[in-house]
Amino acid sequence: MKLIDSTPRKDGYRMPGEYELHEACWMLWPQRPDVWRFGGKPAQYAFAEVAKAISRFEPVIVGVNGDQYENACNMLPDCVRVVEISNNDSWMRDCGPTFVKNDRGDVRGVDWRFNAWGGLEYGAYFPWDKDAQVCRKVCEIAGKDMYKLPDFVLEGGSIHSDGEGTALVTEECLLHPGRNPHLNKAQIEEKLKEYLNVEKVIWLKRGIYLDETNGHVDNICCFARPGEVLLAWTDDESDPQYEISAECLALLESETDAKGRPIKVHKLHVPRPVLITREEEAGVDVKAGSIPRVEGERLAASYVNFYFANGGIVMPLFGDPGDEPALAKMREIFPDREVVGVYAREIILGGGNIHCITQQQPKGL
Ligand code: KQY
């Protein structure tokens, strides 16, 4: 693995759309008891279901801490490759590489600075030193060279690319003081253009209501294909989510993408509010500096937080009356893909969902 002293834009590498062909999917293994209830056991079953579902479409590689290696090997199907990667928690989307690719099919990683969604003041836990090394370790194992940005904080869940020159982000997240307070919006946009190799950045205002990542875009909106997005939606005007989604809709409808296309918006209704139960609260360790789980608090549940696999889609389900309509809508929007649902309540209890725990490696040469 070589560190490249240049930028993807200068070298002709771009971040592909997630719907483009993948080489593999990378994940990490949950275990920390102040995030995952009952020492992570229910979450491990849920992660294993996600890995199993994705492995029907493409190879899956799961990084685990040494003390969980044997258990993860035992819980994951044989077709899933298990490798030892020390980590503080299990959000491969955010601490793993953002992969970029050139027209010849060469793939490289981009290593943003990771600070656990906001650093000491605003972040979700401390320390995050092992998470901060995950990107490099993945690139080492995958045999990919890497760009490194030691001074620019970003997580993979806070960006989407259409693969054709357009990126999608939220102001709530990228302008949050816990990330790059020394940079203004124009400077942040310039970094994205340089390292994702896009010409246009569409800035939504806010992410999903109460999202603890400060509004990662991957929970509220994603590209379905160039020129089309999926937007988390509710028709309930009394729900605080309504104003947020309506604001996104107005913005998207007034925008064009980098190729000058108007953007078609598909609404994907959120489930009914998913609230933490007393039993769930009781299963999570309390730790100073970690986000407490409190009975009755609403989780940032959204069907938009799904994963594109080769020929498939793996999307979260919540045991909600909205599950079936959401599956049906996804099948209508993606007739050429097999849409698979995985019950993901245990994952949203940790603060994210299927997209947040996965990272695609684009197909290489
Ligand atoms: O949604 C994500 N990308 C990660 C959320 C993790 C928050 C910390 N519990």
Automatic annotation (TrEMBL):
The active site is at C356. GO terms for biological process: putrescine biosynthetic process. InterPro entries: Agmatine_deiminase, Peptidyl-Arg-deiminase_porph. Keywords: Hydrolase. GO terms for molecular function: agmatine deiminase activity; protein-arginine deiminase activity. Its EC number is 3.5.3.12. It catalyses: agmatine + H2O = N-carbamoylputrescine + NH4(+). It comes from the Bacteria. PANTHER family: AGMATINE DEIMINASE-RELATED. Belongs to the agmatine deiminase family. This is Putative agmatine deiminase. It comes from Candidatus Allofournierella merdipullorum. The lineage of its organism: Bacteria, Bacillati, Bacillota, Clostridia, Eubacteriales.
